[in-house]
Each structure stands twice: as structure tokens, then as C-alpha cells.
Amino acid sequence: MVWDANVIQRNAVLAQLTGLMDLTWPDWPTVAELNQRLTLSLAGEPLPVRFIDDAEFSALNCYYEQAVAQGLVPTRASNWHDFFGALIWALFPNTKSLLTTLHMADINAHGLTRTPRRDRITHFDECGLVLVVSDHAEMKQLLQQHNWQALFIEQRARFGTDWQPFIFGHALYEQALVPFIGLTAKCVVIEVEPCFFSLNRAQQYAHLDPILATELARTALFDQPRPLLPLPLLGIPDWWPENQDTTFYDNQDYFRPRRQSPAPTGNR
Q1: How deeply is 56 buried, as exposed, middle or buried, from its count of CB atoms within 10 A (0-12, 13-18, 19+)?
Q2: Which residues are CB-contacts of 237 (< 8 A; sequence separation ≥ 6)?
Q3: How far is it, in rounded angstroms, from Cα 267 to Cα 213?
Q4: Residue 189 carries which DSSP code?
Q5: Which residues of the chain have pLDDT under 70?
Q6: Residue 262: what pLDDT?
Q7: Burial class of residue 261 (count of CB atoms within 10 Å of its CB; 0-12, 13-18, 19+)
Q8: 3-class SS at 156?
Q9: Which of 122, 163, 173, 229 is placed for a possible disulfide with 84 were both Cys, Cβ 3.0 to 4.6 Å?
Q10: pLDDT tens digits, residue range 143-175?
Q11: CA distances from 157 to 109, 154, 161, 185 (A)
Q12: Is residue 14 within 8 Å of residue 176, measured between CB atoms?
């Protein structure tokens, strides 16, 4: 993989990382360099983990989640997926720690066999997006109904005002290196007080992370079937140039209508 020192300038999706941390490396950062640079969360607290290379991971003789539970995050060299994974640890340390705790609870109870809950946790970890809003019920209904017309066109001006998206899944950033129509996030909706939207971007992350971790634990979200709501990522206003034209949203292969349940049939 080729390093791009200007990666966050490629498009508006990757630009969500602008100003949050110093990413100015002339070449791929080593694991040691990641540990030197990513020492504190945006809340100013020490990260609960450090990043380790393949050799140190192999010496542990354990699985990935078991290493992370020891505060050691296996991080492959010259790898975009793991690079973005390290950045997410600095943005959401409380939430990432919670996901590790949930993984380990299932591993301790069921062994290393993947459980449905672990699959749902991984789905969010890889492709999750947090949509912070002033009214949870309103947003959840829009997403559940696949009401893309209201979400992205009729109420477009609310993004950045009382709706704010935050990428959580590091695979979304990796996919955003070469965006494609079909790029879809799995969304969790979090309600906050209106004052949240007056904070600067770094302050918003610092405020959001403990709220998100608390809500995921309180609601036992990943215990529920299909807990994540799809959101076509390139539909977010200003995240993709083509969505300035409202006809962009006419593509029903991407902005899919809600699947209709079959009508009940009477007894014969």
C-alpha cells in the first residue's frame, strides 16, 4: 500500500479527520510512531491501549480480542485499515473499550465461536456511524422508514445544526480512500442537548465518546437483532459533490426504499 501524506484532503469523508490530531507523517508511521503520537484521547486522557506490531502479537499467542483486552492492539505495518483503526482508538477510547469488554464476555461464556452478538459488535466496529441529534425518536423514524427525501433534501439544512454525523467504523474510512456508490454506514442514533452543536469538533468527540459508550451499554444494543440502521454515506450533505444535485437521490439502488412486508393472507 502506498502512503498518502495528504490523505485527509482526498474528499470530504476523509476530511472529517481534519484538525483532530497531527497526521503529518512523510511516510507510513511505524507502530512506535503511532504510540508516540496517539498517547491521549481528545478528552486529554491517556489511551487505555498501546499499538503492537506483528512480532509482539505473535509472541502473545492469543486471538485479536484477547490481545486488545490486555491493552495491546495488533497493528499491521503500512496498512490503511489498521491505521484508521488506531485513529478511532484516539477518538472513541471509551466506546472501543466497551466493545472489547462485550467481545470478551461472549468469549468467556461461549469460547472463540462467533456469537450473533459479536457479529453485530464487529459490524458496528467496522462500518458504524453515530448520528448525533436533538430528537432521537424523529431521526430513528426517518431512518427506519428510509425516508431519504426528508432526511437528505427537505431537511438538509439541519445537518451541522442539530444533526451531526461521526464516523466510528474504521473500515468506512478505508473505503473512503476510493469512494463508490453503494458505500453505506450502519447507524446508531444518539440524542444530546442542543449545546453540543455549539462545541468545536474536537470538543464534540470528547463529549460524545462517554455518552455513546454509556448508551450502548445501557440499552444493550447489540443484544437486539438488527440493531443498526443503514445510512447511505454519500448522501450526507457536503460529503459527496454529486449530492448537491437532488436527482442524485433518485438512485433507488443506493437510496433504497423500505422493504414492504407482505400483506397478510386470510385463512382458506
Answers
A1: middle
A2: 152, 156, 159, 160, 243
A3: 47
A4: E
A5: 260-268
A6: 55
A7: exposed
A8: helix
A9: 173
A10: 999 999 999 999 999 999 999 999 999 999 999
A11: 47, 8, 7, 21
A12: yes
Distance between CA atoms of 220 and 145, rounded to whole angstroms? 23
Take residue 32 and report the three cell numbers written for it: 512506535
First to last CA, the chain: 62
**Of 99, 150, 145, 98, nearest in space to 122 by CA:** 99
251-261 pLDDT, tens digit per residue, is 999 999 987 65
Paired sense of beta strands 184-191 and 229-232, if any: antiparallel
Burial tier of 139 (Cβ tally within 10 Å: 0-12, 13-18, 19+): buried
Question: Are β-strands 50-52 and 72-74 bridged in parallel, bridged antiparallel, or unpaired?
Answer: parallel
Displacement of CA 189 from its chain's centroid (Å): 12
The amino acid occupying position 222 is: F
SS3 86: helix
Place of cell 444494543: 221
Calculate the dihedral angle through the C-alpha atoms of 158, 160, 166, 172, rounding to the nearest 10 degrees: 80
Helix (H) or strand (E) holding 209: helix 201-219
Please answer whether residues 253 and 228 qualify as being in contact, where contact means their C-beta atoms are separated by less than 8 angstroms.
no
The identity of residue 163, as a single letter, is: W
Q: What are phi and psi of 256, to 5 degrees?
A: -75, 135
